[in-house]
Write a structure and sequence with these properties.
Elements lengths: L4 H13 L4 E5 L3 H17 L4 H16 L3 E6 L13 E6 L3 E7 L2
Antiparallel strand pairs: 1-3, 2-4, 3-4
Subunit structure: Consists of at least two heavy chains and a number of intermediate and light chains.
Protein name: Dynein light chain
Keywords: Cell projection, Cilium, Cytoplasm, Cytoskeleton, Dynein, Microtubule, Motor protein
Length: 106
């Protein structure tokens, strides 16, 4: 059975929607947020099958670039309640159901 043009368009829209990060919450300054998002996308794509390695890459890079005490959680289906420094929180979704939470707490 051949796909109709509408089905192809729906599939393309779905892939586009789930291949870009969707910021759930952030209080970071714009420049920091953009750099952090790019880092999260790079880490999640590079370590697509290993969330622990992706989290470690993000944490180590954030510690070097913005000072120590950054924390990172990556996964599916989890909740969280954290204490963080003001203007140091980013929580996006990536790849559909993969959530990333990056925060600094001294």
């Amino acid at each position: 059975m051949e796909e109709t043009e509408e089905e192809k368009k729906d599939e393309a829209d779905y892939k586009r929607l789930h291949s870009f990060p969707l910021i759930r919450h952030s209080d970071m300054p714009e420049e920091m947020r953009i750099e952090t998002m790019e880092l999260c996308v790079t880490a999640c794509e590079k370590h697509a099958t290993n969330n622990e390695s992706a989290a470690k890459m993000i944490k180590e890079t954030m510690d070097k670039k913005f000072g120590s005490s950054w924390h990172v959680v990556i996964g599916e289906g989890f909740g969280f309640e954290i204490t963080h420094e003001v203007k140091n929180l980013l929580s996006p979704f990536f790849g559909g159901s993969l959530a990333v939470c990056v925060w600094k707490c001294s």
